[in-house]
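User: Please fill in residues for this 165-position structure.
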């Protein structure tokens, strides 16, 4: 299956690579189907690409890689829609954004994904985590390298970034 993206061009994915976010993501409530693409230049970075809106791709990282003390604190009700049978099936990702001249992580509203069921949800933490945790200063997000195939280190998947056209 191929999806068209404005950032990566045509990308070949498997139907089993699609992540379903039934409630969408804050500000993108109409986007329910996503695919996780690894960045060819930065193994810590991945892109959550909407399959329905070619122009929407979110940079995401595993928050503990950059904030080792980070802990997800949410109520059980927030995780119920993910049908998690074990916490080992849960993967947490933080959205990376640019704020002024800094790269920041949204630690207050991370994405939680049930890897085995391919279900995702954005949750609001009960902790005092920040929406704009400074990751890097004076480092703009660069266009990712899409010339080679790299499997994602964040979520076990066959999803990879491939240039098709």
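Assistant: Residues filled in for all 165 positions:
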């Amino acid at each position: 299956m191929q999806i068209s993206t404005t950032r990566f061009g045509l990308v070949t994915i498997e139907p089993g690579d699609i992540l379903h976010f039934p409630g969408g993501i804050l500000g993108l409530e109409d986007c329910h189907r996503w695919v996780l693409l690894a960045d060819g230049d930065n193994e810590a970075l991945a892109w959550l690409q909407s399959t329905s809106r070619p122009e929407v791709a979110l940079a995401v990282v595993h928050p503990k890689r950059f904030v080792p003390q980070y802990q997800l604190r949410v109520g059980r009700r927030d995780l119920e829609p993910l049908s998690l049978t074990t916490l080992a099936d849960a993967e947490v990702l933080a959205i990376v954004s640019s704020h002024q001249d800094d790269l920041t992580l949204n630690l207050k509203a991370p994405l939680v994904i049930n890897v085995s069921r391919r279900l995702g949800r954005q949750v609001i933490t009960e902790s005092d985590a920040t929406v704009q945790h400074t990751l890097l200063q004076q480092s703009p997000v660069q266009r990712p390298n899409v010339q080679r195939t790299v499997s994602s280190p964040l979520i076990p998947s066959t999803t990879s970034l491939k240039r098709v056209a």
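For context: Confidence is low (pLDDT under 50) at residues 143-165.
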